[in-house]
């Protein structure tokens, strides 16, 4: 159930919950710290004991404004509400959140390919505790008992709600990756899904291709990686298509993603706003950031991924989408300096994406020298990769490394002779290549590289093969 028929369109809206990088919780002085012993970072306020009162964390508000500004939202006056529900992970039996007047509204996020996804809201709320179900399934059904850790209860969150503008599981993955990069760049979050500081719920529906009417949506929970997100959306869309095509209807509900089984399961009927009995939080005043404060926060924002892609793409002479990987790896600064030092932009970009170890230092002038040696023919692409790895590991000069390995460019006639010998020795594979079977290209390149002790240039070998096939 993973192939989605082209007659149908998938519609996805995402709710991304990101914990804020504050020292303390949202309404009390307890530590905001992952990995502490259970129930050690708690107090009367975050446990909801009688007589305790919340005091809003100013820095959490600043981080929320950073997020909203980075997502091109309007930062507006807001108020807090009590969202009432009776789960064991909420010691107060309600969650302090923002309802109809959130702090950030009407924004957008630009993906690397230029697509814009609308941001409906990005509001502040407190996190819940963490419930662990002890038993074979790890879920409440079939559990022997359950344990609750309230360390996370009261940790500041911003929930970022997208418009239903996402049209595939892969686009959802790209959206989350871009959003995570923005959150990390602003300093608002560490973006660690494995620690629960970034969590995603997906609202998925399907509709006939060409239709503008939204179908009945289901919310999917328990996706703790981008891989899970993609698998869950694809499965759920296929499940809904199969239901409708068999004459049944999709029921609006919340569903649980089971990574092991690779499928979603029904959890409960989908709650609406009235189910939570929202009412204004009586112990907190309205939140009204001044224009001066908002301006200060906006001015403090660093360059965000979209702007960094545009800057590098402009210098490299490529599309912003072509530098997305380099920017994601935080290598755009190195590349800009390397290009300024005289390196060919496209060759440097290729090495940065595939061969540069971000954990090891690399001087841009040295990097530029490796690129130049390759462009001038002193090194093949394979040899340049070897030299680059040793430069990072040892700090030695590129020319010295190349000399030590005996790397030297092959004479064109010598290379052509080796290619002809390999072709003659493999007539069956050559017949496939001439017939257009691109799969055997790697075989021939590999044979030539072995025969020349990796002194041949792979791209030159491929060009010669195509030339011979055309003769």
Layout of helices and strands, plus pairs?
Layout: E1 8-19, H1 58-70, E2 74-75, E3 81-84, E4 94-97, E5 104-110, E6 116-126, E7 130-134, E8 145-149, E9 156-162, H2 169-186, E10 198-208, E11 218-223, H3 226-245, E12 253-258, E13 263-269, E14 279-280, H4 291-299, H5 305-316, H6 324-328, H7 332-340, H8 345-354, H9 364-375, H10 381-394, H11 398-405, H12 412-425, H13 427-434, H14 441-451, H15 458-470
Parallel strand pairs: 11-12
Antiparallel strand pairs: 1-9, 1-10, 2-5, 3-4, 3-14, 5-6, 6-9, 7-8, 10-11, 12-13
Helix pairs in contact: 2-3, 5-7, 7-9, 9-10, 12-14, 14-15
Record keyword descriptors for this entry.
14 strands, 15 helices, 471 residues, 3 domains, Arc Repressor Mutant, subunit A, globular, alpha+beta
Task: Describe the model.
This protein has 471 residues and is an alpha+beta fold. The chain folds into 3 domains: 2-299, no CATH class; 305-405, no CATH class; 412-470, Orthogonal Bundle (Arc Repressor Mutant, subunit A). Helices cover 37% and strands 19% of the residues. It has 15 helices and 14 strands. It has helices spanning 58-70, 169-186, 226-245, 291-299, 305-316, 324-328, 332-340, 345-354, 364-375, 381-394, 398-405, 412-425, 427-434, 441-451, 458-470, and strands spanning 8-19, 74-75, 81-84, 94-97, 104-110, 116-126, 130-134, 145-149, 156-162, 198-208, 218-223, 253-258, 263-269, 279-280. The protein has a 9-stranded mixed sheet with strand order 2-5-6-9-1-10-11-12-13. Strand 11, helix 3 (226-245) and strand 12 (253-258) form a beta-alpha-beta unit. The longest helix has 20 residues, at 226-245. The radius of gyration is 28 Å and the shape is globular. The two termini are 47 Å apart.
